[in-house]
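Exercise 7b. Backbone tokens:
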């Protein structure tokens, strides 16, 4: 809907979907927690696009909470990556609201997870690590840590250049 200019309708549907999934989670938590986290993340993205910064932060925080629970219960690469993606989005929400320290903390956690996954599966998830490092660099610069920001963005560019060299049609 938002792709055809119906942003408000899309936001309303995302809110309704989140409410339905929350109800399902109450009935069968393990079966629907991942759906709830995904629904909340989509709602967060829509709220960001609509300029509802505070609401987006609240919803992203709830999504992180759900994803942490899933990751704790199931220590697998996909659940860790889902948590990293959600933390990354929380960082974007904080940055939108000029909450620089909070944005930095969230993206540092996302990068830590991505590095752990990359150590387990070298090179497999590098695009996500490169993108998270870019956000980390932005956040570091925002809190005045310019030397650290330069080091991190250099690492991100190195990762993305390697990927572009291997697959120029994609990168």
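Sequence design result:
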């Amino acid at each position: 809907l938002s792709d055809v200019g119906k942003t408000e309708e899309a936001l309303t549907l995302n809110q309704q979907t989140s409410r339905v999934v929350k109800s399902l989670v109450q009935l069968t938590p393990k079966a629907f927690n991942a759906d709830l986290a995904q629904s909340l993340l989509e709602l967060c993205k829509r709220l960001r696009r609509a300029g509802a910064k505070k609401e987006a932060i609240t919803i992203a925080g709830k999504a992180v909470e759900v994803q942490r629970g899933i990751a704790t219960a199931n220590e697998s690469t996909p659940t860790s990556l889902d948590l990293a993606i959600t933390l990354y989005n929380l960082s974007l929400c904080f940055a939108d609201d000029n909450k620089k320290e909070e944005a930095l903390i969230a993206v540092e956690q996302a990068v830590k997870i991505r590095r752990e996954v990359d150590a387990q599966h070298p090179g497999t998830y590098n695009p996500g690590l490169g993108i998270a490092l870019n956000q980390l660099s932005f956040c570091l610069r925002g809190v005045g840590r310019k030397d650290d920001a330069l080091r991190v963005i250099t690492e991100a560019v190195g990762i993305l250049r390697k990927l572009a060299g291997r697959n120029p049609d994609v990168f």
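Instructor comment: The CA atoms of residues 7 and 49 lie 9 Å apart. Helices lie at 7-27, 29-49, 53-73, 77-96, 100-120, 126-142, 146-166.
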